[in-house]
Amino acid sequence: MQTDALADPALPSDSCTLGSPVFNRFGSAVFRRAEGDGVASLVISLGERLAVVPLWALQREFDIPDDSPDGRTLGLISRSLDYVAGLRIGDPIPPEVLTGAASWSPEPRHRAAAEARVRRHLLAGMDADAGPATPERLRDEPALRAALQVCLKRVAASLGLAGGWQAALGLLEQIADELAYIEALRETLLLRVRAFSRQLGALGVDWRGDSDRQTTLTQVRRLAGIACDRLGARFAEIDRRVADVLGTLRDLDGYRHYIREQRDWLHRSRRAFEPILAEWEADGSLLDDAARPRLARAYQFLAPRFMPVHEWERATAQRPRAAPRVCGPVMHW
Questions:
Q1: Most Cβ neighbours (<10 Å): which of 156, 163, 218, 282?
Q2: Helix, strand or coil for residue 284?
Q3: Model's pTM, two decimal places?
């Protein structure tokens, strides 16, 4: 089972194409999420100013129903902004939205790690005498490769595959193809967030007399730890699900749907984390005066996502209301 928006003949295009002539008036406008509230919007350049128009407001202003061709395309554009930073008229809709495939590719090492993980799980579940099937053993030991082939024959017999163990191996490779994205995200999201958390924990600058900054550092450390725990739990659940290789093979479409949901959620999380992680990776070894805004940005990112709800509600309720602010060169509707 996989998402296939193009299977719906009512959908007009696989690109950011809109039929209403009103969209031709906006020149080099771009669809992106608004800064601050993250609402899917059309950003229009008006000389030295920018106009940021939420898509819902655009639909209301120009009477574009949700079930019209342009309304459906705007819906696809809104969903697309979970996967790309922006879209212009004529740009392709990301494949995550159209077919469930990914718009990015894992590295060969991630594919190799996924293949080794799946084979290791298969041997562990069907051959207790095989021992730990490390990638090196799978590569170098003929006896272990033979044991794997025996397991594949048993899988083929259990599933009634006419192609024998080679057909079972092909299905195993399909699992690894999907899992390679999870291995890539394990490296580029989970391990980096854990490194960020360790980096915060290792900072030992003594800030006597600056209780606000000490408090912020303590809070950011705690929130980063919560982020690590939650992300780690999600990867652990994926690993637990994939460990049942035979069960996965019996419901390959269900597995693919599950893994792609997790892949897309983790990919969106990686995009959200990226500015914070990149900033601390580039310049996060010291907490001097220049680090104050960096620490504040980390807190502003982590708090609404990982602070316990009752704490967040209390913190926001106690926050003084800011005076209305002129947006300068940006106009919001």
A1: 156
A2: coil
A3: 0.80
